[in-house]
Specification:
This protein is mainly alpha-helical. Helix content is about 55%, strand content about 10%.
């Protein structure tokens, strides 16, 4: 486990946006660009990990035919490009 404190999802996305701006600005050297790219990959993996964990936690309440309320896994609708 990392010694770094956990950063929330929104902060991770903000960091990614700042990195993209710096990369697009052309102000970084080649080495700086590579370091920013590597940091962006780490942040992207962390954001995806958080999204995956959130998806596992999402549950919906459904009423069974006998009238009982049950927890059911959330099935997200397929994205437009996945429906084809």
């Amino acid at each position: 486990m990392s010694d770094e404190p956990e950063v929330d999802f929104a902060a991770t996305v903000e960091q990614l946006e700042r990195l993209v701006e710096r990369l697009e600005s052309g102000e970084l050297s080649l080495e700086g660009s590579l370091a920013a790219f590597e940091q962006g990959l780490r942040l992207t993996r962390e954001a995806q990990r958080r999204l995956d964990a959130a998806e596992l936690r999402v549950r919906t309440l459904v009423e069974s035919p006998d009238g009982n309320i049950e927890l059911s896994a959330f099935d997200a609708p397929a994205a437009e490009d996945e429906r084809d």
